[in-house]
Specification:
Blueprint lengths: L1 E6 L7 H12 L5 E5 L2 H6 L3 E3 L2 H6 L21 H11 L4 E6 L1 H13 L4 E5 L15 H21 L3 E7 L6 H10 L3 E3 L7 H15 L1 E7 L5 H12 L3 E5 L1 H5 L5 H19 L4 E7 L2 E6 L12 H8 L2
Parallel strand pairs: 1-2, 1-4, 4-5, 5-10, 6-8, 6-9, 7-8
Antiparallel strand pairs: 2-3, 10-11
Helix pairs in contact: 1-11, 6-7, 8-9
The protein binds 6-O-phosphono-beta-D-fructofuranose.
Length: 317
């Protein structure tokens, strides 16, 4: 059995661990595992090579991916189907193991299924914004990276009090990542794009928090509307200095947490078993805390907004 591994869209911590596990399962029995560079763009161009086992095991605990990804819509090109099937037949590839987030699941997976390509998806994004699963690979590592940053901010905030700290997370248009971080870190405020707040209310609450606690910590999601104007309006209305930290892509490239190391390997083991059992389409999803194989395409739906009650608890609304 020959498998090609593809990373599509934003990388996330845990991809290398999953590739490491899958390769270790496959290669001792003589099965081949190839990796595509540059996602589907590379696959269509035949940019495939055997996975370097020693490299992937060396990097299993690191973020990023030994296989480069791409956001280019390569499969939308008119001859994409024929090129893909030709490459797969030339390299004798039986199955694709695909890492990707919501875009990949909504747009690429159904296309592959309609072309009869055998493919199992490992939902992978730090954003945790895929409707069909409670958990996406990489989310926990990105949260842990932010918690480290909060620990540093809290230390300096304690030493030099009287300020407001605003920590910006990634998360694309969704606030799931920011809320998870705000809750776990005990932040005073979570600012999520799904629930914009009145500036007057914000200014009042921040003034009170600084008076009570000596400093205020805000976790803000990157798509919250008007971040720049908040940075000038809050000090103007409160008279309190605001210091701002943007985690940016350092967060996405975080080291792999214990949870993601386990999830990555659990996903790979289930995908391996599924291919061996002759299952040709599916995704690894988490329901009620348990990882399982969903056979066939995932329903095309949007994840509901972040938990309103948790959000209200953090913001004391
Ligand atoms: O989807 C994962 C993610 O890291 C989002 O959180 C973020 O908005 C986006 O990717 C950034 O994408 P790019 O690396 O293309 O700027």
């Amino acid at each position: 059995m020959n498998t090609a591994i593809i990373v599509s869209g934003g990388d996330a911590p845990g991809i290398n661990a999953a590739i490491d596990c899958f390769t270790r399962l496959a290669t001792p029995g003589g099965d081949r595992v190839l990796g595509a560079q540059a996602g589907f763009t590379g696959l269509l161009a035949g940019q495939l090579a055997e996975i370097d086992r020693s490299l992937v095991s060396l990097l299993a605990g690191r973020g990023g991916s030994i296989l480069q990804s791409s956001r280019a819509p390569a499969l939308q090109e008119p001859d994409a189907r024929d090129r893909l099937l030709n490459v797969m037949s030339f390299h004798e590839i039986d199955n694709l193991l695909l890492f990707g987030g919501d875009g990949t699941i909504q747009h690429i997976a159904p296309l592959l299924a309609s072309w009869g390509v055998s493919c199992i998806i490992l939902p992978t994004t730090i954003d945790n914004d895929v409707a069909a699963t409670e958990y996406t690979l990489g989310h926990d590592s990105a949260c842990n990276f932010a918690l480290q940053a909060v620990a540093g901010i809290r230390a300096t905030a304690h030493a030099l009090p009287g300020r407001i700290f605003m920590l910006q997370t990634l998360g694309a248009p969704s606030g799931h990542l920011a809320l998870a971080i705000a809750y776990a870190s005990g932040a005073h405020l979570a600012l999520l794009p799904e629930y914009p707040l009145e500036i007057d209310w914000l200014a009042q609450r921040l003034t009170q928090v600084v008076a009570d606690d000596g400093c205020a910590l805000i976790v803000i999601s990157e798509a919250y509307p008007g971040i720049n104007s908040l940075l000038s309006e809050i000090p103007r209305r409160t008279g309190i200095r605001v210091r701002y930290t943007d985690l940016g892509h350092a967060q996405r490239g975080a080291d792999v947490s214990h949870r993601d190391g386990c999830v990555a390997r659990d996903m790979s083991r289930l995908a391996w078993r599924a291919f061996k059992d002759g299952i040709h389409n599916g995704a690894l999803i988490m329901r009620d805390g348990a990882l399982r194989l969903h056979q066939g395409s995932l329903p095309s739906e949007k994840k509901p907004p972040p938990d309103r009650r948790l959000y209200e608890f953090v913001n004391q609304l």
